[in-house]
Amino acid sequence: MKSLLEKLKENNMKPYHMPGHKRRVIAEGLPYSIDITEIEGFDNLHDMQGEIKDIADRGAQIYRSVASYPLVNGSTCGILAGIYSLTRDNKNILIARNCHKSVYNAAEIAGLAPTYIMPKTEKLGIMGKITPESVEKALKGSDIGTVVITSPTYEGVVSDVDAIYQVCKRYGAYLFVDAAHGAHFMEKAVKCDMCVMSLHKTLPALTQTALLNICSDRVDKSLVQHALSIFETSSPSYVLLASIDECLRYVQENKDDFDELARNLSFFYENTASLHNMKVFCFDDPTKIIIASSDGYLLADLLRKNNIEVEMASDYYVLAIVTCQDKLGDLQILLDALDKIDKILPPYNAPETLPINLPQKGDGTGQGEFCELDMCCGKISKEYIWAYPPGVPLVAPNEIIDKDIIGYLKSKKNLKSTMGKYPNIYVKKVL
Ligand SMILES: Cc1ncc(COP(=O)(O)O)c(C=O)c1O
């Protein structure tokens, strides 16, 4: 069998996926010969005073935050630490049901039983915006102290975060925004108490790099630092920290690249209008290209045959991600492949939308047992089931598994469960 390194070196697929650097070198000299641990003469991530503090300050300047913390364990670590620090008051948590699994894990670690709100379902069944009204309805008369939403989402849906923040403040709740997919929205400060951004997803930075931003003076910085010391590695990679630094410098010094990307994307979308068997569109973020067809998995395979790897495939679409490292020629390559594939794809018949309902909640406490998917109707799940990417749980603990959910799970590929035995599901034993 080939080693991982051999395979990585051989991989010449054209990437329309993360990481955002697209395997292009924006700073020479990363990594073996410069890989160190905390040694004399270098700054310390857990007690920033020198060059790492400088990186944090640059992050704060770009994102107009009160304070920014460079992360080497991805947004996952920022979500765990951020939510842990905001929920020390033991008040409850409101989670948008389309949040990443790390948000659910954060609630579990904090010992909270979350309340969920469901976004509206958009085209092709993709989850849409969270509305300020739905947040207000959930907060009214509740003991909720922290609200967590994702904006932009994996598919590029942006909620009205400013309005949601106004609601949260009125009800005395913190707002944490998972903006893991929004590090490239530099011009728009996120109006909330805290947000996390994966630099590696949409900017030219190495995988696992991210920033946790404190955005209001309602947040206790020392609690956040304490939480980061719990959740972040005690051996931070200086290579990754240097990559964060170079990425932020790139962003400051190459603003034109983002304008060029916007122009190239307009050209791209204009040139997809003539496709017959695919529909190409975006939600609020044009860098998240949705290519719909009657079979998303087939489309991904055909693209692969054309040496193109996309970010993800689902029943009726694929998601292609472009960043400032994709130039006009790169978009043209994708256009040429789509033109070619359009001639052999079956006629377009993807459904306009697919209803996804928020599952009913039950009491999942007590002993559990494994049960075959087909036998689970009416039972209460004691575990998560998700498709990765994007890692949004389709079933969460304490949710009642009904026939609609069973049908939905059966239509999905690449499902994983917390207990690792899917299609057997860990459910409450005695109902
Ligand atoms: C919405 C969302 N939040 C958080 C994460 C976790 O980010 P990271 O991979 O940087 O830990 C992901 C990862 O895919 C995500 O899609």
Features:
18 strands; seven-stranded mixed beta sheet; Aspartate Aminotransferase, domain 1; alpha/beta; 431 residues; Aspartate Aminotransferase, domain 2; 13 helices; Molybdopterin biosynthesis moea protein, domain 2; globular; four-stranded antiparallel beta sheet; binds pyridoxal-5'-phosphate; 32% helix
Give a structural overview.
There is one protein chain. The protein is an alpha/beta fold and 431 residues long. The chain has three domains: 32-253, Aspartate Aminotransferase, domain 2 (3-Layer(aba) Sandwich); 255-342, Aspartate Aminotransferase, domain 1; 368-428, Molybdopterin biosynthesis moea protein, domain 2 (Alpha-Beta Complex), CATH 3.90.105. The chain is built from 13 helices and 18 strands. It has helices at 4-10, 51-63, 74-86, 101-109, 132-139, 161-170, 199-202, 221-231, 238-253, 255-270, 296-305, 328-342, 403-410, and strands spanning 14-16, 67-71, 92-96, 115-117, 144-150, 174-178, 194-198, 210-214, 279-281, 288-292, 308-310, 312-313, 317-321, 368-372, 385-387, 393-395, 415-417, 424-428. The chain has a seven-stranded mixed β-sheet, sandwiched between helices. Helix 4 (101-109) links the parallel strand 3 (92-96) and strand 4. Helix 3 crosses helix 8. The chain is globular, with a radius of gyration of 22 Å. The termini are far apart. The mean pLDDT is 95. Pyridoxal-5'-phosphate binds at residues 74-76, 100, 102, 150, 154, 178, 180-181, 198, 210, 389-391.
